[in-house]
Structures are given as C-alpha cells and as structure tokens.
Write a structure and sequence with these properties.
There is one protein chain. By secondary structure, the protein is an alpha+beta fold. Helix content is 33%, strand content 20%. The strands form 3 sheets. It has a 7-stranded antiparallel beta sheet with strand order 1-5-6-9-10-11-12, with helices on one face. A 3-stranded antiparallel beta sheet has the order 2-4-3, covered by helices on one side. The protein has a two-stranded antiparallel sheet with strand order 7-8. β3 and β4 form a beta hairpin. The longest helix is centred in the first third of the chain and has 22 residues. The protein is globular.
Length: 302
C-alpha cells in the first residue's frame, strides 16, 4: 500500500490502547504481505504469476475480497478495475517527455477487464480468461485494511478510534469523548503543488463529521496536471481528466475507496447513478478547472 497508517485511540487506558494500536498496525503489515503485487510471495503475486495458465488456489480471505471487488467494479461500468495492472505498468515506465504510444496503450488494454477475472464458484481459485493479465489492488487495499483494523479494534472492545491510511482512506469508530463524531478536514487539491507535502492552512474544502463510517478521497494535486494524473482510466488507458477530487462516505471502507476512484474516472455520469447503485454512499466531486463542487443530496458535510 506504500503509505503510512495511523490509529488515534482516545481514552485513559493508555497501556491497553497502545497495545491495541500495535496490533492494528501489525494487521496492516500482514495485509501488505498478503495483497501487494510488489510482494513476491503474496496471494496477489501468486495469482499474477500463474492465473493465466490455471486457476490459482488462494486463501479464503483473498478469494472473498476479490469476489466482492469484482462485483463492485462491474457496478461502476469499468470505471474501477482491479485488473488495470498492465496499464499501470506501462505508465510507470513512462516519463512526461515520453508517454506511452497509442499502440502500447491498446496492447495493454487488451489485457484489462474485470469481466475476465475468473473466480471459481466451487472453491477459492482465481484466474484470468486472457494471457498477460494481472491484478493491482492499489485502488482498494487501503480501504480493505482500515476495515480489517476496525473489526479487530471492535473485537478488542475499543469503542472510539480513527484509523487513517495515507490520508486518503479513513474509518471512524464511535466518537472522541464529548464529541458527536470525528471531524475530518478535506484539503483542496488545487492549492497543493507537485512537490508540496501539505496544503496551505486555509486551503480546505470543508470538513466532514464521521461516526461509525468510512471516508475515502481520490484526487490529483495541482502540480500533477503539468504531467499527468496518477489515476488512470481503465477504459481508455489514459490519465483521468476533468475531476480533481472525489470524496465518498460509506459504512464500508472498501465501497468508499472503490467509488472514490471510480468517480475520479467517470465523474458526473457515475455521480448521477450513485443513489440507484450504491444507496448507502454519499459523494462530493470537485469537477473541472473552475472547481465546481457537485455532491449527492445526502452528503454529510457543508
């Protein structure tokens, strides 16, 4: 997942809460070993290595996650696709002065398609319907991890926590003492340059109050538009255009992260269908260079 994980646990039982936080961070490390395509022994790497030849037997956790993610991806009409790995690899090897050719993009797209991800109906086996495909769970791994950490903390009887992965995926359990919920500020991506780690103190879109729900933010920083956005459209193989930031609130961290990525790709068209396809989700878009703010009717913030 290549990001920092942070867990805020308010309370007076400091020793117990510190031990709970240590277990939470250990869970993030375990999931990195299990799901990262950059870990050679992970379940995802095993699928990528052999899935084009035969369905690979995986653990039940990975199988359940992939079936869930496959269903979510199909519901976004391909705006989110966990098989985007060949396109990601293509752009990862490119430079702003030498972007991939149209022919190279077409060849990579021929090996992309969540409908070609085969999950066996009888046992936990996963494979690909076309040679050369591979999985990349970078668009959902953090959400899945914060969800697993949340379940672990609940099992440890922790009633109040904020779990944050890379300042883009978060899960709020309960609320801090004396508060209605966890107040989370949303940075304005237009105010952050390519090399700036943080926005100016005043450069925020607003804040969201979270309680027993998840938040996911996908976007491009202002300086990224000088080269290309780091989020790619799995339907075209090109960097996303138009939407600067997509923010989603949903009880499920996995749903929230999938949708924030899909909305960054599909924009207003998917936003209009969100209530029908994902009734528990609320979303906000910062669209276009003029910074139009679009949101669902049930958006929980200002």
């Amino acid at each position: 997942m290549r990001c920092w994980f942070q867990v805020a646990l308010p309370g007076e039982a400091v020793v117990y809460l510190r031990a709970a936080a240590d277990e939470a961070l250990a869970e993030a490390a375990r999931l990195e070993r299990t799901l990262s395509r950059f870990e050679p022994t992970s379940e995802v790497s095993r699928i990528n290595a052999g899935g084009s030849d035969y369905p690979v037997l995986v653990d039940h956790e990975t199988f359940a996650l992939l079936r869930h993610v496959r269903a979510l991806a199909l519901a976004t009409d391909g705006a989110f696709d966990p098989t985007i790995g060949p396109v990601v690899d293509l752009w990862r090897a490119a430079t702003p002065d030498a972007p991939p050719s149209a022919e190279a993009i077409a060849q990579a797209l021929a090996r992309v398609g969540v409908d070609r991800l085969v999950c066996d109906a009888q046992e936990p086996r996963v494979g690909f319907a076309r040679p050369g495909m591979n999985l990349d769970l970078g668009g959902v791994g953090k959400g899945y991890a914060v969800g697993c950490i949340g379940r672990m903390l609940r099992d440890l009887e922790v009633t109040s926590a904020l779990i944050d992965a890379g300042t883009s995926s978060a899960l709020a359990l309960g609320a801090p003492p004396g508060q209605a919920g966890w107040r989370v500020a949303l940075a304005d991506p237009r105010a952050v340059g390519a090399g700036d780690p943080e926005p100016e103190p005043h450069a925020f879109l607003g804040e969201v109050l979270l309680r027993d729900t998840a938040l996911s933010v996908s976007g491009v920083r202002g300086g990224d538009r000088g080269g290309w956005a780091h989020v790619l459209d799995p339907r075209t193989g090109a960097p996303t255009q138009g939407v600067w930031q997509a923010v989603v609130v949903d009880p499920s961290p996995v749903v929230a992260e999938v949708l924030s990525t899909a909305l960054l790709v599909a924009g207003e068209r998917l936003l209009e269908r969100l209530g029908e396809r994902f009734p528990s989700a609320a979303a906000l878009l910062l669209a276009g260079p003029e910074g139009r703010v679009l949101k669902t009717a049930n958006w929980p913030g200002p």
